[in-house]
Every structure is written in structure tokens, then in C-alpha cells.
Design brief:
Helix content is 23%, strand content 35%. By secondary structure, it is α+β, with helices and mostly antiparallel strands. The strands form 6 sheets. It has a 7-stranded antiparallel sheet, with helices on both faces.
Length: 397
Amino acid sequence: IGMSSYGPMTSPAESRIRWLLTAAIIGLVLYMSRGWISRLLTPEVGDPNAIPRAITPRGDLAADEQATVEIFESVSPSTVFVTTLAQGWRRGLLGVEPFTVPQGTGSGFIWDEKGNIVTNFHVVASAARSGGQCRIRLKTGNEFTALFVGADPDHDIAVVKIVANASLLKPIPIGTSKDLLVGQKAFAIGNPFGYDYTLTSGLISALGRSIQTRERREIQNLIQTDAAISPGSSGGPLLDSTGRLIGMTTAVDARALASNIGFAVPVDVINRIVPELIRDAAQTVAPAQASMGILVIDEQLLRANGITKGVMVRKVEEGSAAEKAGLKGVAPLPNGSVSFGDLILAIDETPIDNMLDLRTVLRKHKPGDRVKVKYDRFESGQKTSLEAELTLGTAPQ
């Protein structure tokens, strides 16, 4: 009784007790050996004897790599970073105190040891038209305020000039574009998105392309390349495999950014137009430049508020030709607002639509010349058309 062929029978209670004891023993063993198990399952972290790895010798660069390095080292000192500054206002349309704000960035290259810099017209157009500043930074880090020399908007070419020691100026080597072939290598140096001195490479993808600018001008006979060109690269050099200038990057097809379809003005066009712009400036700019003695309102502020033509006087300098002729600038009103300045519309029958027009006219004169100025005056909500004769003074150097 109470026996089986396999031994004594165990009651259900005894089985539970044995199971619990077995589970407790196993749990205790696992708990006590948890560190050992953890080390077994987890690799050891840290090594107090760690030292730098031995360097595998690189060997010589491939011939094409060495050639690319040499192109960048040779030509990058001839490339510049262009920044334009425009006037801003602290309050209202014509706030009493202006301040300058960054307008845009681009690239350019050194043309000669006299400080002439070539870039795209669209890079400096806003500063040239509104009286803003154009700043040039060399690879050495030296920065200069540039003078506007001239432009050919139909080819998107502009020349500005800096006054710098010739030792800082390395003119870019000039090549030719008449013998370019589709498929040959092309290299671009620029400042895309503000990342200065960026080198990209690709091929000449096509020749003789035409594009339309944002100003609805058609630029013809452009070089097409797949070397990456991004905002900020405009105005930079496009080079051949020997490091010679073959074009100036000017635009990228926004519909095909992923395909890197970019365009460049051929160097043969640049080499014809740039000397003309420099010669014209030398013929029209007197050694002592003529000046009306005014500061002007930013063109974009005027256009945004419905004034489509003309140059508005912000401030008349004391003792200037403009002051003697009775021109008025922006003035505060008792109610805390400001009055408009005089809006210059023509000089000697030549229409003045923007600051670029005004500068062009003044370059044709020398201090002491008399000119007739047509302008609108805004007083008490009324506009009056007036004329004044003034004797041009000397621009500050």
C-alpha cells in the first residue's frame, strides 16, 4: 500500500514544495553568479594599454589627384569671397537711423595687380544700384571695400576694384574657350552657401547654351558643366585641367539641382568685355570724383513701397553742392514720423532710375561742373516737381 513499481508515491503538496525549493536554489545560484554571467555575455570594455594604431603608408597620390591638388593650391589665392551690404532701417519705411545688413554672397577672381576683381553682375547689382557696399575678402583673410568699376548686365559681368598691396594680389591665369571640347575636365572654385574656397570638379557637358536671367535677360553662348555650382559660387572661376580660367560660373538650372547642370560665361567673352569696362571707367572717372554730396535711401525700400523710379535723398551733407542747391533729405516730424526726402528723377535730361544710373552720370563729370537736377518733393502729402542747378563738389576719397 502506498508503493508503486517505481518507488514511494509523492503527494501533490510535497511536489510543490520540492519545485519551489529547486526554483529558489536555481535563482540563488543565478543571482550569486550574475557578475560572472554578465562578463561571459558582455565583451570587456576599455583597455588601459590602448595606443594609437600604426599608420599604413599611403604612397604617392595618383597623377590625376596630384594635378587637382596643384590646381587648387595654384588658383585658390586668385579667388575672392564677395559680400554685399545694403542699407536697413530700424523703424518705419524711412527710419531716422540706417544700418547696413548683409545682402548676399558670391565669388570672384583677381584680374590684375591693380586690384580689379571680376564677378557676376547679379552678385553686386543690388549694392551698385542702391548705394550699398561691396566687400572683398582674399584668401589671406585681408578684407577690403570695393569700388564699382562697371558692368555688362547682358553677359552678367561686373568689375569692382580694391586698393591693396600688389603682393596680396595674384591675377588668375587666363585660358581660352574657343577650343573647348565636351567631355574635358572642368574645375570650379567658389563659396557655395558661404563655405569659402570650395573646390568641385566635373566635365564640360555642353557648349553654346542660352539661359534667361531673373531680370529676363538672355545670356547666350554659355558653357554647361556638371561641376557642382550652388548659391554663393556665382562669379567664381571655372578652370581647365591646367588651372587656366575658361569661364566664370554664373547660374545653375534650379529644375535640375540633383544633376548639377550649371552654366559659365566663356573666358573669351570675359577677356573682351573686362578691359572695355576698365578702360571706360578710366575715361569717365576723373582723378577727383564729382559728387552731389548726398546719401540715398535703399532702392529696395522704395520699390517695396510703390516708388518705381528715381533715387531718394536720405541725407544732405553739410556744405555740399546739394545743400547749396536746396535739396532736402529725410527729416523727423513732430508726430514722431519722418518726411520723405527729395526724389531725383533726372540729371541734365538723363533719366535717373536707380543709384547705378546716378553713378554713371556723375562719372562723366568732374568737380566744378554745373548740372541741372529734376526731382520731386513731398510735403504735406503733396508732390511737387522741381528743378535745381548745382555745382558738383569732390567725392570723399
